Sequence to fold (260 residues):
Amino acid sequence: MNAWTASALAELTSAEREVADLLRIEADPADTWAVLDDVPYWFHTFALNRAEGIYAPGTARDHRYRVPAIPESFEGFSVLDIGTFDGFYAFLAEARGAERVVAVDNEQYVEWVRARWGVELEGGEGFRAIHSLLHSAVEYRELDALELDRIDERFHFIFCFGILHRVEAPARLLRLLNRRLAEGGSVLIETHGVFADPNDGDPVHRYKPGEVYPDDDYVFWGFTPGGIDMLGRESGFQGFELVDAPVIDGHPRIIGWLRS
Fold:
């Protein structure tokens, strides 16, 4: 096991395990240890073999606030997962009955992981490892979120988790998401909120490089529910339906629905 994974395992909390247990992989222990040896960094936590207590330890902190918003069944749905990283939500949708799942990521996180943790990635290692363990049919495409029109199909459901605050043109991304939705489809969107009393008081707040996370120059925006509602309506959605606005590890988060 590499040094980063060993350290992350030691810090793994019950909150991360609770979310990971939604997708019970239950792979052969020998295969799980091989995966932990081969993948140098995890963003999502995966329950590789619960009986043996083997988890792939992610750095994402306590995603339990996302769980109530995720449908119990994706039966008959086509699903798009934007900024999939290790693919947890794409694989969860597949496990819950989605008939087609496409997961996309521009793999910009390679630079982000290098800057924040000093770990070198090629890109897609965690996704490929879980894909293999699950014998999954999820389709992976290395693609920027602002190039979604290259996908010539529409989806019933779109995950947009942790991405809106990391694109320089959030309104453009929302317009692209709206074009990729089937009639009656929904986007479940989760993003960074606004710290208390920002200087400008705007519903959409611009952050400076490194202001939100040290050594992370890719958080550009914070949103209030009203800010997402404004951008959503301008992008062709009905408006924003807030689900929750928790503070996680000192950071405000926003999660809710945009519907076609």
User: Anything to note?
Assistant: The chain has a mean pLDDT of 93.
